[in-house]
Each structure stands twice: as structure tokens, then as C-alpha cells.
Design a protein that fits this description.
The protein has 2 helices and 3 strands. α1 packs across α2. The chain is globular and about 25 Å long. It has a 3-stranded antiparallel sheet with strand order 1-3-2, with helices on one face. The chain has one domain. By secondary structure, the protein is of the alpha+beta class.
């Protein structure tokens, strides 16, 4: 599983970037990421495109 270090703060752009903490929290809620520390997440290798798009768009 790839490990991603998220940014300190959210940039609040539309759509949000993939290193945004909000995006990673949403992926964690959906079950596609696991939080290691405050700023590190382990992502699944195969995240469906629609799930990633929805996590970034909301």
C-alpha cells in the first residue's frame, strides 16, 4: 500500500488535490485509506476512479 503524507492545511480548491487532508479523511471513511499518524495515510492500491472523484469533489 502506498503511503501518502498530506498537507498541513486544506487549500479549499475545487476539486481538492489528492494530498488534501479532507480528501484522505473522506477516503478513510469509505474504507480505502487507513490513518497511520496525524499526517500519514496508507491508501489502497486500487481506488475506483468514481470514489476518488467523489472524495475530491464534495
Amino acid at each position: 500500500m502506498p503511503t501518502v503524507t498530506v498537507k498541513n492545511t486544506c487549500c479549499k480548491d475545487k476539486p481538492r488535490c489528492t494530498k488534501c487532508p479532507v480528501t484522505c479523511m473522506r477516503l478513510e471513511r469509505e474504507g480505502y485509506a487507513e490513518r497511520e499518524t496525524k499526517r500519514k495515510y496508507q491508501l489502497d492500491k486500487k481506488i475506483p476512479k468514481q470514489v476518488l472523484k467523489a472524495a475530491r469533489a464534495r
